[in-house]
Design goal:
Oligomer: single chain
Helix content: 40-55%
Bound molecules: pyridoxine-5'-phosphate
Radius of gyration: 17 Å
Structural class: alpha/beta
Number of domains: 1
Number of helices: 11
Distance between the termini: 19 Å
CATH architecture: Alpha-Beta Barrel
Number of strands: 8
Amino acid sequence: MSSTLNPGKLRLGVNIDHVATIRNARGGDHPDPVRAAEIVARCGGDGITAHLREDRRHIRDDDLKRIQDATDLPLNLEMAATEEMLAIALKHKPHAACIVPEKREERTTEGGLDAAGQHNQLVPIVNALKDAGIRVSLFIEASERQLDAALRLGAPVVEFHTGEYAHAYLDGEPERMQRELKRVTDMAALAAKNGIEPHAGHGLTYENVQPIAAIPQLAELNIGHYLIGEAIFCGLEPAVLRMRELMDAAR
Ligand code: PXP
């Protein structure tokens, strides 16, 4: 999802993984994440985000091509930094690849990628993706150390992990929430100053999205679990539209 697509606008990438989670619970084809992608395209989402996990617990290999065939929206493929995932990314050539840490036993992507500690393993993966014309994003904690590592790796985009911010909100700890918000705010400004496009995501909801959406340098939010959860009650289109409305109002 390049900044040239919707200049100036905070883009909403909708993560459709959990449509596939529900599908896979019964092993069949319903509900189909491709149908979710089509709805997101119709109602003004700016991109589709999908995480092909090593254990294929939600998105499956064949979903990627089906999503790409079904919509013109840019696909942001979340992937672990492995040879297997690199080969899949090079085959499908998504618009963007967001490199995330991945542990099989985790419920979701807990914590950011250690771009600083894994510099040497990341160099060939980042370079191969960039050489293929895929926009590389690194899913990192909002810290100077990780941002500096992203700069050294030549990543054009970073996505700041907002999980701690979201947890602070859930735990009813406003001071911690403000501290986390400040971290993301400061690092988004520093990223932009250094020519890196900052994105953010994880754990964002109707209730907590606005302070993050108000950060002026952020170009994109990627939101999944909450939207798919809301879609159960009100439908995916109203859920995406409501999130869009809240994001726009925060700017
Ligand atoms: N961005 C990244 C890199 C992620 O890994 C995830 C979760 O898959 C999200 C955004 C979306 O997080 P959530 O599902 O909590 O909205």
